[in-house]
Write a structure and sequence with these properties.
The complex is a heterodimer of chains A (83) and B (153). With 83 residues, chain A is an alpha+beta fold. Chain A has three helices and five strands. In chain A, strand 3 and strand 4 form a beta hairpin. In chain B, helix 2 (56-71) packs antiparallel against helix 3. Chain B has 153 residues and is of the alpha+beta class. In chain B, the strands form three sheets. In chain B, strands 1-6-8-2 form a four-stranded mixed beta sheet, sandwiched between helices. A four-stranded antiparallel beta sheet of chain B has the order 7-5-9-10, with no helix packed on it. The longest helix of chain B has 18 residues, at 102-119. The mean pLDDT of chain B is 95. Helix content of chain B is 33%, strand content 36%. The chains are: A alpha+beta (83), B alpha+beta (153). Chains A and B meet through helix 1 of A and strand 5, helix 2, helix 3 and strand 9 of B.
Chain lengths: 83, 153
C-alpha cells in the first residue's frame, strides 16, 4: 500500500485529503502515479491539468521521476505560499 | 536551533531574549516578523487561514536551517510559523538568527525566509469581499530564492 495526500486548493477540488491504495501495476514514479490518478476522470483530471503542481515523497520535495515504492507517502499540492 | 509550528501567537522580545540568553559570543541578532496585511492583489482581506503538511513542514524547515548553518557562521536560530485562522495585523512568522557579527545574521535570516517561502509546505487561504480564495504563489518569491542558488559543481 501507499499513502497519498492532497493539500490546499487541490484537496478542496478533489474533496479528499488522504487515501491509501495498492501501488498500481506499472507505476514506478511520481509522474506515473499522477497519470494513474488523473485517469480516474472527473475532478481527478485536475491532477493532470493543474499548472505547477508540486510533489513530495516521504515528506521531501520530489520530481516527476522520483521513484515511488511500496510503503511510500506521496503528496500532491499547489506551489507553497507560507511566510 | 528551535523550530515551532503553532496556532499561538509569539512575543518577539521573549524569543530574542531566549535566543541570546547566556551567550556572550553573540554580537548580532537579526529578526524578521511576517504579518497579515488587510489587502492582497487589490482586494481587502478580512481573514486568513494557514494550512500546512504536518511532518514535512518541520522536516523542510530543519533542512533549511541546516543549509543556512553550512553557509554562514551562525550561533543560533529560532523559527516560529503560525497555522490556522489569522486576522489582519496578526503575526504569521518569526525568523531570528544570532551570530558574532551582523553580516552573517542578516544574510542567514534572509536566506531562511526566502527558502521558507518557496520550500516549506504552507498554504494561505484568504477571505475577501468576493469570497474565499487560495493565495497564488508569486514569481518574485521564486526569484528571491534563486538568488541563493549555487552553481552546480
Amino acid at each position: 500500500m501507499i499513502k497519498v495526500l492532497y493539500f490546499a486548493g487541490l484537496r478542496e477540488a478533489l474533496g479528499t485529503a488522504a487515501e491509501e491504495l495498492a501501488l498500481p501495476p506499472g507505476v514506478a514514479d511520481v509522474g506515473g502515479l499522477r497519470a494513474h490518478l488523473a485517469g480516474r476522470g472527473g475532478d481527478w483530471e485536475k491532477l493532470a491539468t493543474t499548472k505547477n503542481l508540486r510533489f513530495a515523497v516521504n515528506q521531501d520535495m520530489a520530481r516527476a521521476d522520483t521513484p515511488v515504492t511500496e510503503g511510500d507517502e506521496v503528496a500532491f499540492f499547489p506551489p507553497v505560499t507560507g511566510g | 536551533m528551535s523550530i515551532s509550528v503553532q496556532h499561538e501567537d509569539f512575543d518577539l522580545s521573549t524569543e530574542v531574549a531566549a535566543l541570546r540568553a547566556g551567550q556572550p559570543g553573540v554580537g548580532a541578532v537579526v529578526a524578521f516578523v511576517g504579518l497579515v496585511r488587510d489587502m492582497n492583489e487589490g482586494s481587502g482581506v478580512s481573514e486568513m487561514a494557514l494550512e500546512h503538511y504536518p511532518g514535512m513542514t518541520e522536516k523542510a524547515l530543519a533542512a533549511i536551517v541546516h543549509e543556512a548553518r553550512q553557509r554562514w557562521d551562525i550561533l543560533g536560530s529560532r523559527i516560529i510559523h503560525r497555522v490556522g485562522a489569522l486576522q489582519p495585523c496578526d503575526q504569521i512568522v518569526l525568523v531570528a538568527v544570532s551570530s558574532a557579527h551582523r553580516g552573517e545574521a542578516f544574510a542567514a535570516c534572509e536566506f531562511i525566509m526566502d527558502y521558507l517561502k518557496t520550500r516549506a509546505p504552507f498554504w494561505k487561504r484568504e477571505v475577501t469581499p468576493d469570497g474565499a480564495r487560495w493565495v497564488d504563489a508569486r514569481e518574485t518569491d521564486d526569484s528571491a530564492a534563486a538568488r541563493w542558488a549555487r552553481p552546480e559543481s
